[in-house]
Structures are given as C-alpha cells and as structure tokens.
Design goal:
Blueprint (H helix, E strand, L loop, with lengths): L1 E2 L8 E2 L16 E6 L11 E2 L3 E5 L2 E4 L17 H5 L9 E7 L6 E6 L3 E4 L11 E4 L3 H4 L5 H20 L12 E4 L2 E4 L11 H11 L5 H15 L6 H15 L3 E12 L9 E4 L5 E4 L6 E8 L6 H19 L6 H25 L10 E9 L2 E7 L3 E5 L4 E3 L6 H7 L5 H4 L23 E6 L4 E6 L1 H4 L3 H9 L1 H4 L5 H16 L4 E12 L9 H5 L2 H7 L5 H5 L6 H18 L5 H21 L2 H6 L32 E4 L10 E3 L24 E4 L5 E8 L7 E8 L54 E5 L7 E3 L4 H4 L15
Antiparallel strand pairs: 1-2, 3-6, 3-8, 4-5, 5-6, 7-8, 9-10, 11-12, 13-15, 13-23, 14-16, 16-17, 17-18, 18-21, 19-20, 19-22, 22-23, 24-27, 24-30, 25-26, 27-28, 28-29
Helix pairs in contact: 3-6, 4-5, 7-8, 12-14
InterPro entries: PPM-type-like_dom_sf, PPM-type_phosphatase-like_dom
Protein name: Protein phosphatase 2C domain-containing protein
Keywords: Membrane, Transmembrane, Transmembrane helix
Length: 809
C-alpha cells in the first residue's frame, strides 16, 4: 500500500495503482536499497520504521514518500562519503534514511538513487505491481557492448577515480559486482572503504584484464593504455581521462546524431507576469543536424519577488548567446570549452550586476535569475547551471536529475552535515546560496558537466515551477518516455509538461526546454591505432599535454569577445603550418637566439649579482621552451595528494598569504552569497598565515569538486626570520568586509531565497612549526610547488604521522 504524496490528500492506495484513487495525483514509488547486516534478519513484507516495506533482496519501498524524515540523529561516520559525493549522485547512491539495530555498532541504511530497474516498464501497465531488480553488473554485459559504450564506461571510471580516492572509497571502482550499468551510465551499487592506500596502477591492472574481452576495434588501445598506467607512464587520472577522450572521439565518428529542440514558457495560473525566459524562444520546435555545429538550450528563472526578474532572465540569455557566437564552440577542446562556458555565465552575471548598480537597485530591489544550459556538440553534451533550475536526463531505462540545486539543503549535504531529507526540515532549506546578478563574479561558482551520449536521450531543462514537489520524477514515464518509444512528438510533450506544472503545482511560472538526441550507427567503427604509434606524432604529444595547459589555453578575458576568435584562428593556422614546414631550421634558430640572449643577459648583469647566482644545469634536453607566464616559477600541480610536501613560493595576486583554519567545517563556503542582515555567528578560528618559503606536508584531503576540495596541512619548516610573535611588516593587511550594498540580501520564495554565512575573522600571526590546519585547495594550490624535501625543509615532518580526518558535527 502507498500513501499519496499530495500533502492535502495522503490517501492510502494499492501499490499497483499509478494514480491516487482520490485526487488523481501520480503516485510516487520510492524504491530503496538496504545496507547493513540487519537487513538479512527482516521478513518479506515487514515494515521498517512504520513506513519502509521490505520487498526482499535488500529492496524497500517508502510507503509514505510525502513525509520528511523524523530522524534527527547523527549519521554514522562510515556513511559520510555518500554525503560529500552528492554532486556525483548520477553515479553514487545517496543516504535516504537509517535505523539503529539491536547491535549498537550496526545500522540499517536505506539508499536513494540506487541502480534499480522497475519491471514491467513504467507507463506500460496498470493494475500490475512493479517488479524491481538491479541493473546488470558491468562484466555481465561488457563483451556484448559497443566499442563506444565500453569506452564510455571506462571514461566514467577514470573521472570518478579522483573524487572517490579523496574520500578513501576508490576500491569501490575495482569491484566489478559494485559497478552496475544503466545503458551508457555507470552506477555504483554502494561504496566500500579502502583498507589500504590504492594507486592508479590497480585500475590499470583491472582494465588490462578487461582488454581481453574488449571489442576488437579498441582492444589494442585499451591494452596499451592499461600497461602504461601499470608502468607509471600515465601517472594521474586526468591524463587517463584525456587519452580515453581521444579514443571516444575517434570511435564516435561512426555514429550520426539527429537533434530536435522544443521550448515552452507559461506565466502560470496565479502569477501576474512571467519572469522565466528560454532560448530558443518559447514555442519553438525545430530539428537540427548538429554535425559541424552546436545546439543549445537555455532556461532562466527570474528570482521570485524581485523587481525585474524577467529583465534579468532575458539579459542572462542574451549575454550567454552573444558569448557563444564569438567562441565558436565546435572549434574548442573540451577543457577550453568548459572554462569558457563558466566565463560566459560570469559575463552574464556582470551585466546583470552592472544594470542593478546603474539603476541603484539594492537589497530586495536587485534583479536576479537562475540559469541552466545545454550545449550539444557531436557526441558530447555540456550542462551548465547556477541556481535551482534543473536538468533531467531521460533514457528508456530511467530518469535522472543531473544538476544539484545551489540551495542551503544541498550545501548541507555536500559538506557532510546531514542527509538531504534531514536538511529539508530547516526553514531556510530552499534558500539559494548563489544566483546571477547578486554579487561579483569572483564569488560565483557555476557548474559545468560533460556527458558522453551513446544512446537515444531526452534532456529536460526546466524551472522550479515544474520540478518542485518531485513532479518530474513522478510523471516522466507517462509524459516523456512515450517520446523515446515513438508514441509522442516533442511539441506535445512540452505542452503536457507545462500542464503538469500548472495543474499539480500552479503557484509559479513554468518553463521547459527539451533536447531530444537520437543516435544511429552510420559507418563501420575504425580500429584504433596503437598508443605507442600515436605518442610518436607531434600533434598527439601536444594533445597529451592538455591537462597541463588548461590555464594557458583558457586565459582569455571574457570582456573582450574578439580575443577568443583570434586565439582559435591562430591555433588552427599553426596546426596547418606544422604539417607542411620543416621545423628543424626554426628550432636551430631558436637555440641560437636563446644562446645569444643568455650571453647578453650575463654581460649586462652586475658582477656581484652574477657571483651570487649559481648556474643550474637544465633538467630537460628539449631545445624549445614554452612561453612563460606570471606563474612560470611555480610547478603547476593538478591537485594535492596525501603524503606530498609542498612549498609556498609566492602570495596571491592581491598580496594575501594563505590562512589555515582549525576546522574544515569552519572554512568559508565559496558558494555562499553574503547576507548583510544575517546575525553574526561565531567566526572560525584562524590558526595563522603561511610564510613564503614554508614547507608543508599534506595529511589528508576531502571534497568532491574544485570549489569544495580542502586539504589538511602541517608546517614542516619555515624560512629564517619568520617569527610567529613578530609578523613581518610586509604581511598583507586584514581584508575588509565588503559594504552591505555590494552583496544584498535576496528575499525570495522558499524555493529561491538566498542565505549565506558570516565572514571569517582574519589573523596576522604566522604559523609555527608543527601546526596543523585546514585550507581550501583552491586557495593555496596556484601558489605552491612540490618541495624537494631537503633535511632542513623536512623539519618536524621527518617522521611519518597519521592523522584521522575529523567528522562532521
């Protein structure tokens, strides 16, 4: 039996009904996966916690899905990685509820977003109790999968390696029974804690075993990649992702894609104006052939209760579209395009903020908007979002929300403070932590995801007028699935979704954008050349270096639209020249000029200065030096790893020294918008600042995204003359808090209010030897290099000490 989720109804219905027999609201079937030894003691049909019906094989159904969790106890530490990995819930299940057992050390945990398959197909049968089973394990379908799908699964594994490693659960990727596949989507059944430190070599060994049964077109390439991972030639997950990416790009050429787009926006039955906006404009239904170009869909939701929300929505779309025209996305590599999409969002934010400032809009008068955007390019879909508008990915097997709302509840989860259903109990759970137009772009953190498409898919972009109250989850099988089954057209689906929003919600504007991508084989899959042959070509060697050139390739001012076009054109011309011009004379000329330049520099330097400057032998035999940047004296590190030692080599551009905090939970949230009217809370304790030249040891790490990732550091050594009691006069001044008008309060409806934390206190004290503290990786990574760890630099870190990561309160 299922209770209706409609709060004004909550009637009891048989499980085989699709709609509430009293109010006709679609019934929510929330199937959950049970973990814990206590599950084995339950009887079929037993109720857990007076609401969770046990259906056998560790499967439960929530009979009261409309009620929030009544559990206020602290989640056991072993389940915290699930919370911090919540941005990856397309692949990682999420804690829904848990119960203590008779054994106080054990709990029964129930997981949402588990890899379930509901039979018979939803939308097909009425009066039949659905049967639930797990999606197949990867090895059971590996040999029969297409080359593109095999590479797609490997690409997702490589992308998951770093975040799972940070949470010390990466061994989950090495257990094929835990790797479930839903078409082209790789999903984990559960997370297993690492008993020992695991290196990328283990993944290479696993892939080497799989290469035996891989499709012939990719088997040799997979075998060689695996061997190079084992041998350490491919030494990090980022480089592995790049190599798999290149293989996917070649194999995907054997497929063709047809694309249809439809948009529809409606004021709603109760609103006096429509503050939503979309692109293409509302009412559009069009078919595209994206080969050689890019298809885009944008949906914006003006923040409710603000003057000019509709103006902000249209400003954001106009700014982003103008930027994309200049960018020519089809000509950019994946890394550059990702960065430029972020810049496009920031540019839109600046234009809205400037409009607010020019019209002297403050506090509640400021206009703002959310944004979700999809950019389809060949076999890739780039999803950009900020705020609480959403994107859903629908296939024949299921429906998945692939964006994470920028609200307080979601922030509580990813910081490891509470489960999502617990966080929803807070009065401010729906308050936004960021939106366009509310502040400076340097405090904005848009999210860009990249998906590989190897099957027919529908992507739904919508405002919260539709997504509120889980309407999409409840109706996707009746309203969107027929499109994939050839039983409905795109325009009808868009109209029906707006009707669902207006009839079942009805209190807000409703906007939908649909992107329907159909994939078909159009040519034989080419057999990939061996990796060793590929590495010998100069063009490919440049491609492999992409992870280390992300900053240089994307260092373009978003306010100068012509700069991108010039950069792309220049790059293309250079590639054409390189294939027809013999580079040897040019290289010899560069070497000669470099030698002459060094001689002139040596002659012009003062004699005393030359005597104090030792000659350092070159570490590379390469005759060509890449153009230096402002950070040329720093070894660019992709990320910080546990056990490594680093040295602070310079301050940030504003002259600030990095500060360590006593508690990672006290670190300022990079996604929070300052609230000038909020009551001040207890400021986190700043232990002190890191002096330039200090050597530090990485003790532990955490977080899933570049914004969230934090590191625990210990001071191994400090430069001579750095006294904690007497800070240098050159230390940067304490930063001042911005005036209230710079970051106004956002007062909106429960689904779009804005809340933010207080600004932490600062300190001018330098850290002492042996002190341990926390810092966000992004606040120190650009200014450090790997330390050579001389005896003096090792200092107090000579002996290895193990530190346990503190748990969330």
């Amino acid at each position: 039996m299922l209770y209706c989720a409609n709060p004004t109804c909550q009637a009891l219905n048989p499980e085989d009904s699709k709609f509430c027999q009293k109010c006709r609201t679609p019934l929510v079937r929330q199937y959950l996966w049970g973990d814990g030894s206590g599950v084995e003691l339950l009887q079929l049909g037993e109720l857990l916690g007076d609401r969770y019906l046990y259906k056998g094989d560790r499967v439960f159904v929530d009979t009261k899905p409309g009620l929030l969790s009544a559990n206020s106890s602290e989640l056991p530490a072993s389940y915290l990685p699930y919370l911090r990995l919540s941005p990856l819930r397309l692949h990682v299940p999420q804690v829904y509820e848990w119960f203590p057992t008779s054994d106080l050390d054990e709990v029964i945990a129930l997981f949402d977003h588990a890899p379930f398959w509901v039979l018979p197909d939803k939308g097909e049968s009425e009066g039949v109790v659905p049967q639930v089973q797990l999606f197949p394990a990867i090895l059971s379908v590996w040999a029969e999968a297409s080359p593109l799908r095999q590479l797609n699964w490997l690409w997702q594994m490589a992308n998951l390696w770093q975040p799972l490693s940070s949470e010390q659960v990466v061994s989950s990727l090495l257990n094929p029974d835990l790797l479930r596949v839903e078409g082209g989507i790789l999903r984990l059944l559960e997370l297993r804690p690492d008993s020992i430190a695991i290196s990328l070599t283990a993944l290479g060994e696993l892939w080497l075993q799989w290469s035996v049964t891989a499709r012939p077109e990719i088997a040799d390439r997979l075998q060689e990649m695996s061997q190079q991972v084992i041998q350490g030639q491919i030494h990090n997950a980022e480089l592995l992702v790049e190599l798999v990416d290149e293989a996917i790009a070649q194999v995907a050429q054997a497929q063709s894609r047809s694309v249809q787009i439809a948009t529809l926006s409606d004021q709603g039955p109760t609103r006096q104006r429509n503050e939503d906006a979309c692109s293409p404009e509302s009412g559009t239904v069009q078919a595209l052939q994206p080969e050689g170009g890019a298809a885009t869909v944008i949906v914006c939701d003006g923040i409710g209760g603000h003057q000019g929300g509709d103006v902000a929505s249209h400003l954001a779309i106009a700014a982003v579209e103008q930027r994309l025209k200049v960018l020519k996305p089809e000509a950019l590599d994946a890394v550059t395009l990702t960065v430029e999409l972020e810049k496009a969002v920031c540019l839109a934010n600046d234009q809205i903020s400037q409009r607010n400032d020019s019209e002297q809009r403050y506090d509640r008068q400021r206009m703002g908007t959310t944004l979700v955007m999809g950019l389809l390019r060949d076999h890739e879909l780039y999803v950009t979002h900020i705020g609480d508008s959403r994107v859903y990915w629908i296939t024949r097997q299921g429906c998945h929300q692939i964006t994470l709302d920028d609200d307080v509840a979601s922030r509580e989860v990813r910081l490891g403070y509470s489960t999502y259903r617990q966080a929803l109990q807070q009065p401010s759970s729906g308050s936004l932590v960021q939106a366009l137009g509310m502040g400076a772009s340097n405090q904005l953190y848009p999210t860009v995801q990249r998906l590989i498409l190897d099957e027919d898919s529908v992507f739904l972009f919508c405002s919260d007028g539709l997504s509120d109250n889980d309407r999409v989850d409840a109706c996707w099988d009746t309203e969107i699935l027929p499109l994939l089954l050839g039983k409905a057209d795109l325009a009808t689906v868009a109209q029906r979704l707006v009707e669902v929003a207006n009839t079942l919600n009805g209190y807000d504007n409703a906007t939908v954008g649909l992107l329907y991508c159909q994939v078909a084989d159009s040519a034989p899959v080419p057999k990939l050349s061996s990796l060793s042959m590929r590495l010998q070509s100069s063009d490919t060697a440049t491609a492999i270096a992409v992870p280390f050139a992300k900053t240089a390739k994307s260092a373009v001012d978003p306010t100068q639209p012509d700069s991108i076009g010039s950069t792309v054109i220049g790059t293309q011309l250079l590639k054409q020249k390189s294939s027809s011009v013999n580079p040897l004379p040019l290289l010899l000329g560069i070497v000669a000029l470099a030698s002459l330049g060094l001689g002139l520099i040596a002659a012009l330097l003062p004699l005393g200065q030359r005597a104090r400057s030792p000659i350092v032998a070159p570490q590379s035999a390469s005759p060509i030096a890449l153009p230096s940047t402002r950070q040329s004296d720093i070894n660019v590190l992709p990320t910080l790893t546990v056990g490594s030692r680093i040295q602070l080599q310079r301050t940030s551009p504003d002259g600030q020294l990095p500060r360590l905090f006593s508690d990672p939970q006290a670190l300022p949230d990079p996604q929070a918008l300052p609230d000038p009217q909020a009551l001040p809370s207890a400021a986190p304790q700043v232990l002190g600042m890191v002096a330039i030249g200090s050597t530090l040891e990485v003790l532990s790490t955490g977080g899933t995204t570049p914004q969230d990732r934090w590191v625990q550091l210990r001071v191994c050594s400090t430069p001579a003359g750095a006294s904690p009691e007497s800070p240098s006069e050159s230390l940067p001044a304490t930063p001042q808090v911005a005036p209230e008008s710079a970051s106004p309060e956002i007062q909106v409806s429960p689904s779009a209010a804005v809340e933010s934390p207080s600004v932490p206190a600062s300190s001018a004290t330098l850290l002492r030897l042996g002190q341990v503290g926390w810092i966000r990786e992004a606040n120190i990574l650009p200014w450090v290099g790997l330390s050579q760890s001389s005896p003096e630099q090792k200092g107090v870190c000579t002996n290895s000490v193990t530190f346990n990561r503190p748990l969330a309160d």
